[in-house]
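Handout, page 2. Input:
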Amino acid sequence: MIDCAHGRFPVPAPATADLLRGLPTYSAHVQHELVTPTGAAIIRALNPTFGSQPAMRIQQIGYGAGYRNSKDLPNVLRLSIGEAVETQSNQGVASRPKATHFAAEVEGPASPSPDANFTTVTVLETAIDDLSPQILAHVTERALALGALDVMSTAVQMKKGRLGTLITILSDDSQVAALEDLLLRETSTLGVRIHHERRSCLDRTHTTVVTPYGEIRIKIGTRNQETYNAAPEFEDCRAAATRHNVPVKQVQQAAIAAYQTQSNKQ
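Output:
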């Protein structure tokens, strides 16, 4: 138990328990608060993966120690930074440069993405050959409403020559339980495959440009301050096209031209 501003609560405190929802936890059998709301919030913001330390050539090691010393458990957080190396079990798989690994003795196991440019995403998949396309469309809409990062439907050929649909949902760990329940309840599937994948993402920002059809947001993808992609937000273009009774592509072209002109002035 812990005494806080709102009274006496069981450990983990309500805020901490909610922040750790969907993440693997364990009991260290120490009668103290080992994960604070701040620590849980940092782990949630880092969006880490969890598991054993990969084969790696460690270059730097850092330690952070707390003030409370438990009898059976060191109150220490260790961070190791190094490069992944190939082993006999992963021959043929490209080495991942600058793979980063966190090993936490007290605050809970946390190993973030192996590279600053990578994040970890949860993938839920199921293949169905006996469900109405109307229900499939409904499931797609519900998945996005429940917080899915993306939803894809792929035509596949299944057993007995049947044509089916492979539903693939990308999600953060915090939404997995709700999305799994959605697939099991709303579709005819008897099982859902769930696994983690690494993905490389550009840093995303928005800017607004002025066109003859009004203001249009431009989605910009950058890395190391270099712009890789810039595209008008489709919904903005569609709304402007409806207001002015012009083709959507005409608004898109105007937005791109305005963005290029704005960029050249900077």
